[in-house]
Amino acid sequence: MKIGRFVVACVGVLLSGSVQAGNYAVFLSEKYQNFSREPTGTGLGFTIDASHRRNDTYAIGPGLGLSVPLGALSLFVGGKALYIHSPAAGKGVATPVGVAANVRLSNMLSVSSRLFYTPKAAFNSRLGGYVQTGIGVRMNVDPAIVEVGWRYERIAGRNGASGQKLLNGPYVGLGFTF
C-alpha cells in the first residue's frame, strides 16, 4: 500500500510542475523492463523498474530523482522503492539510493551509467543489501533514442539466507525526446 501511495505522490509532483522538455524511454530485455522520464535540464524525473529472474524472483517499483546538467555531464540523483521477492534471499521493500550519469560524447552519442545501492540491514524490510548497476551507449537522433548496454542486479541475503543475482546481461532501450 505504501508503494502505491509513493507512485501517486511521484505522479502528482511530476504533473504539478511546469511542463518542460524531457526524454522518455522504454528499456526492454528478456528479464528487465523500465519506463523513465529524464528532464533535459534541471528538474524532477522518474523511473519504474521491473526485473525478474524467474516467475518467483523479481524486483519492481518506482523511483524519483533530480536531474542536474553540468556541461557534457548530466547527473540524476535519487532513490527507488522496490518490492523484492526471492525464495533464496527473502521478500520485502528495498530503498536503494544512487546516481545515474550521462556523458555526451557528441550531438548523437553518449555513454550512460547508473549505480543504486542499499547497504545490508539498512533501509530494508527483511532483506540484506541490494545493488543495481549498469552501463550503456546511447544514440540520439531526434526525436528517437536508442540505448544498448549491460545491467547487473543482486540481492544479498539476511539472517542466514543466501543472496541471489537478479540480472546480469544485455538490454536494449528505445525512447523519444520532445
From TrEMBL:
<feature type="signal peptide">
    <location>
        <begin position="1"/>
        <end position="21"/>
    </location>
</feature>
<protein>
    <recommendedName>
        <fullName>YfaZ</fullName>
    </recommendedName>
</protein>
<dbReference type="InterPro" id="IPR009998">
    <property type="entry name" value="YfaZ"/>
</dbReference>
<keyword id="KW-0732">Signal</keyword>
<dbReference type="Pfam" id="PF07437">
    <property type="entry name" value="YfaZ"/>
</dbReference>
